[in-house]
Specification:
The chain has a single domain, classed as Aldolase class I (TIM Barrel, Alpha-Beta Barrel). It contains 8 helices and 16 strands. β5 and β6 form a beta hairpin. The longest helix has 15 residues. The two termini are 24 Å apart.
Length: 300
């Protein structure tokens, strides 16, 4: 039975990775998860310089999920290269580095630094606010998506995955723009913008007022968007958004995703990725599926 996939030219032993921002760079999960069994570890976002993130409170629970307004807090590329890459290289897993920035120059600086490093893929978070365009996210205008993708591809040595925002009118249009810019793959969905009010304090539950919603409540939206994006482009798709179980992951795969990422589930079940991998294998055995690739996009 074959669980391995070829994702934009990179062989993954299985189609399961972690969603950026939910797994750190693996160190805090190493006592719960055998990192060697993951198809890949996707790191927390890395910027050209350290980011402090947003003021607290910046996480709250919602029905069927959570809101976060962490603000992409991270130690910056220097410490990431010095500490996190050597840690991950101890394990037999692929490394996908999530890259963030506020300007195209900041993205490119990180991409150039990573060109010298032994990592396998880059995932570009274009839900970041573009300070040069008045704060609109890079991923909310097709022309910007195509432009930043093209500029990053000029500097990247590893395959580039563009991480798409769901906070748009037409996800297929954004997927096509990433492909037109030369993306090797796309990943989606990032979080949906949401808000919660603390009625007892009569104020916002998050200091930032709004936050990114994730968890099982977003899954039907995510599956729909993955299906639309996968049918709009000829590059592979990494699907995510509310995956808690193997059944959830298989929905994304059947909708057209070649890989899936487990995110919020890691917070309440540190073993979630292992459960998903084992559950996919059990499903394949039980249904006489010899190759996971037979299931990719089988629902059309």
């Amino acid at each position: 039975m074959n669980l391995s996939v070829d994702f934009a030219g990179v062989r993954m032993k299985n189609p399961v990775t972690t969603a950026s921002g939910t797994f750190g760079s693996g160190a805090e999960y190493k006592d719960f998860v055998d990192l060697n069994r993951l198809g890949a570890v996707t790191t927390k976002g890395v910027a050209s310089v350290p980011w402090e993130g947003n003021p607290t409170p910046r996480i709250c629970e919602t029905y069927g999920g959570m809101l976060n307004a962490i603000g992409l807090q991270n130690p910056g590329i220097d410490l990431f290269v010095e500490r996190d890459i050597p840690f991950l290289k101890q394990y037999d897993t692929n490394i996908i580095v999530n890259v963030c920035g506020r300007t195209q120059e900041e993205y490119i600086e990180v991409v150039e630094r990573l060109a010298e490093q032994n990592v396998d893929m880059l995932e570009i978070n274009i839900s970041c606010p573009n300070v040069e365009a008045g704060g609109i996210a890079f991923g909310q205008k097709p022309k910007l998506v195509e432009e930043i993708t093209g500029n990053i591809k000029k500097h990247a040595k590893q395959p580039v995955i563009m991480k798409l925002s769901p906070n748009v009118t037409d996800i297929a249009e954004m997927a096509k723009a990433a492909e037109a810019g030369g993306a090797d793959a796309i990943s989606l969905i990032n979080t949906l913008t949401g808000m919660k009010i603390d009625i007892n304090r009569r104020t916002f539950a998050l200091a930032n007022k709004t936050g990114g919603m994730s968890g099982p409540a977003v899954k039907p939206v995510a599956v729909r968007m993955v299906y639309q994006a996968a049918h709009a482009v000829n590059i592979p798709v990494l699907g995510m958004g509310g995956i808690m179980t193997a059944e959830d992951a298989l929905e994304f795969i059947m909708a057209g995703a070649s890989m899936v990422a487990v995110g919020t589930a890691n917070f309440n079940n540190p073993n979630a990725t292992m459960d998903v991998i084992e559950g996919i294998a059990d499903f394949m055995k039980g249904n006489g599926v010899e190759d996971i690739n037979e299931l990719v996009g089988c629902v059309s």
